[in-house]
């Protein structure tokens, strides 16, 4: 894997370079096993640069014991795989450790594939022609084609694609198809290498109480529409976000949250094969753009609305059938979005941060990238990304952990 980045070294790399220069810590005297354990804890970008130090260090990239050591690192700061309007040309990622842009320099040569999901160290692409899927490790460039799911009824539109990494070498893909009230789902598990049969979902009776703390697998899906008054698709989504969804695992229960075009949030219990509508956030006469993310097992909704000649960007979460306000973009920043009729596409990293991509459609393209830290409760903004002197505009992103050991 090759990538280009800024000239500034990260603090981790600077500290590690000092360590290398210190005669009190002779790295050459370390056994291969100890050396691999030390290197496995380096930030991925720092390790890839350090492999140029000597042949011994470079050889660790293909070492099985090094991959095992990397898999024992519980969490890595996320990288954001950025997506342009055509969903194909971008190979840029934002490294949240080094706080800079990188070009992965991987040429997929799969013109019909668009990125649709991510989990762990893997990205998932879907072929717009065949409907098949491609799994890829963006760090190593390794990839694998998955068979297309065979539907009992090809007329059922695909609503969502969700992905979860069970281990660095195993993953699960979930698809939901149909139109309410006729919804169905199926899943692919890498361990079995096959798709499950199609399973139908039925609508839960309105009188039944919805329990968010149940032990069953639950799927949530949410509409994304610009004019909720008529519940239409007037606000078109980026192709990469057409099947946008997130999946959580809590108490061994898998929960998928995905976006549809019906103007409601629907909770689908995969174990009991039923679904029910959840309360709406805003009254139907308001215009808004909406997206959802998952962070540490919790589903968050990000909502951009306009009211009284001002724009508001807020984050919510659902607790006990009620929406709880989590954070709000400062008015001085959100007011700059007013009147632009823009769309938001969001993703959360493994470090309690939510990335919000705001963009408008041509002819006046306007893009901003805001990051909200759920722990520090602070907002920041990503710098512009430049290629050959020109700014590269992104409409959405996928979050992944830069894991060399992740296999497809």
Automatic annotation (TrEMBL):
Pfam families: Beta-prop_KIB1-4, F-box. SUPFAM superfamilies: F-box domain, Galactose oxidase, central domain. InterPro entries: F-box-like_dom_sf, F-box_dom, Gal_Oxase/kelch_b-propeller, Kelch-typ_b-propeller, KIB1-4_b-propeller, SCF_F-box_component. Residues 24-59 form the F-box domain. This is F-box domain-containing protein. The lineage of its organism: Eukaryota, Viridiplantae, Streptophyta, Embryophyta, Tracheophyta.
């Amino acid at each position: 894997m090759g990538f280009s980045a800024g000239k500034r070294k990260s603090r981790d790399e600077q500290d590690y370079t000092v360590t290398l220069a210190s005669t009190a810590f002779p790295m050459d005297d370390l056994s291969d096993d100890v050396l691999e354990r030390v290197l496995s804890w380096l930030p991925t970008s720092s390790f890839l640069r350090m492999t140029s130090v000597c042949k011994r260090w470079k050889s660790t990239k293909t070492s099985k014991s090094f991959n095992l050591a990397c898999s024992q690192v519980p969490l890595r700061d996320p990288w954001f795989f950025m997506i342009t309007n055509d969903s194909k040309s971008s190979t840029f990622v934002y490294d949240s450790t080094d706080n800079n842009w990188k070009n992965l320099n991987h040429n997929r040569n799969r013109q019909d594939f668009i990125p649709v999901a991510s989990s762990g160290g893997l990205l998932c692409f879907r072929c717009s022609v065949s409907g098949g899927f491609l799994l890829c490790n963006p760090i190593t460039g390794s990839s694998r084609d998955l068979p297309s799911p065979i539907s009992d009824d090809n007329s059922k539109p695909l609503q969502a694609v969700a992905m979860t990494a069970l281990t660095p070498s195993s993953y699960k893909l979930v698809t939901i198809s149909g139109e309410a009230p006729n919804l169905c789902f199926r899943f692919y598990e890498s361990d079995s290498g096959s798709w499950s049969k199609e399973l139908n979902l039925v609508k839960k009776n309105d009188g039944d109480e919805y329990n968010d703390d149940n032990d069953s697998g639950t799927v949530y899906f949410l509409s994304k529409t610009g004019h909720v008054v008529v519940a239409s698709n007037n606000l078109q989504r980026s192709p990469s976000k057409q099947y946008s969804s997130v999946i959580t695992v809590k108490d061994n229960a898998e929960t998928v949250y995905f976006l549809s075009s019906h103007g409601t949030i629907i909770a689908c219990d995969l174990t009991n094969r039923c679904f029910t509508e959840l309360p709406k956030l805003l009254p139907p006469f308001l215009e808004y753009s909406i997206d959802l993310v998952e962070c540490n097992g919790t589903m968050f909704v990000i909502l951009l609305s306009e009211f009284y000649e001002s724009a508001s960007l807020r984050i919510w979460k659902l607790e006990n059938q009620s929406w709880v306000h989590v954070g709000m973009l400062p008015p001085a920043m959100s007011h700059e979005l007013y009147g632009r009729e823009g769309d938001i596409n969001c993703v959360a990293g493994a470090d309690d941060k939510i990335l919000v991509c705001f963009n408008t459609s041509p002819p006046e393209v306007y893009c901003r990238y805001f990051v909200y830290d759920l722990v520090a409760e602070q907002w920041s903004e990503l710098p512009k990304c430049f290629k050959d002197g020109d700014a590269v505009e992104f409409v959405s992103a996928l979050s992944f952990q830069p894991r060399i050991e992740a296999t497809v």
